[in-house]
Amino acid sequence: MPEHERYDAHHKALSVNLDPTTFGSFAEIGAGQEVARWFLRVGAASGTVAKTISAYDKEVSDDLYGAGTRYVSKPRLHAMLDNEWQQLLSQLQATRGDHTKFFSFVDTISARNYAGTNDCHGWVGLRFMQQPGGPPSDIFLHINLLDPSNVQQQEAVGILGVNLIYAAYFVSGPAEKFLQSVFEELGLERVEIDYVEWSGPAFADWKRDEAHALLVVGGYAEAVAFPAGDELAPSNELLYKRALVLAPGRFDNVCDLHADLIEDTVAQLPEEELKESKGGLGLFCLSVEGISAPGQQASVKEILEHVEELQRLGYGVMLFRAQELYTMSAFANRYTKLRIHFAIGLTVHVRVLQDRYKDLPGSLLEGLARIFTQNVRVTVYPMPAEELRRRAAAAGLVGWSWKETDGMVSADNLHPPGSLDSLHQYLLDSELVLPGKPRTAQPSASSAKV
Fold it and tell me: Can you give the residue ranges of every domain in the chain?
């Protein structure tokens, strides 16, 4: 396909069907059989489709793929793929193996239920040969389905599956090019890809962390998780029912004090929240916007340098597309109903109050409302007065004043200009914003203004 040309799902499915060397099977659980349906309805399906199956019944699924795993999970997807691939080769390798590039497509999906109460997500996998008789390559995706209806989610899965099979055979090269093809005719309002895993010669040049960061940088996910350990995982598996402490920031100079933000806040989590949860979890939050310069999107290289520095402090990192706190809390609330605790430094707090939220009709008031209507508490830790003075001057802040205690400024001693100070005082009085406790006593005080 020429670089400038883009095919829709119909043309992609037909292109695969008309290729005499591709032949494979489809096993789909949940969200209908929308992927196979594309290949069956565009014509020439007999040249591509060896078998389609949909083992909806749990007992039937267990008999085929084994019991003991969650039905919508990566282990289940692996079991499905191994079973279907082994069967495909045992039945067709002898007669077609010398001229056929076999493939097996599998998915297990939890599409929107009748009541709309479930987590709409799924796992998608493909094993394929690049050459007849050659070694297979695997690719696995975790996806989130965001369409409001079951039918629309089925349609999205169908398009994504067609795109994946087409990309495997017709789009070679770097991860960015491959993922762009997989995401065509979709968008973040419909589907997110927040995890990708692969093996085999087709992806020999891909790098794991780069591809993971690319999911956000390329616009395929709102956020991805880089856990503290070495093993990546989808956000729903990391955040599910956890008592969360999120520490967002630009992290120009990573140091132990950033870890203290999380450690101190986790230590203060209410006991009742911990009992209701699967345990406390602290994460740094990094946005692809504003790392290198405000308003500019960072490169994958810059992002991974920041991620690695933060992980050395002992905590994982959530990488977000947006930098607003209300976006981060809304994302976390997909997977936990417990209170979200933000642990921030004073400069982030100033940015929250100074931001005009131009994308929101209600500007600042709507931005703050979106944060605090989501069961959020913000703990603001003090910073050195000299550092605050330097950053205020660099940001061009006018009318802000504060009282410093032993060279430090805390949230309750910070005063924004004009009527904004009254709003700030309300947030403090209502304990929506909590001043972080200094680590040492602060005996002396003085005042400053910019």
Answer: 9-206, 222-349
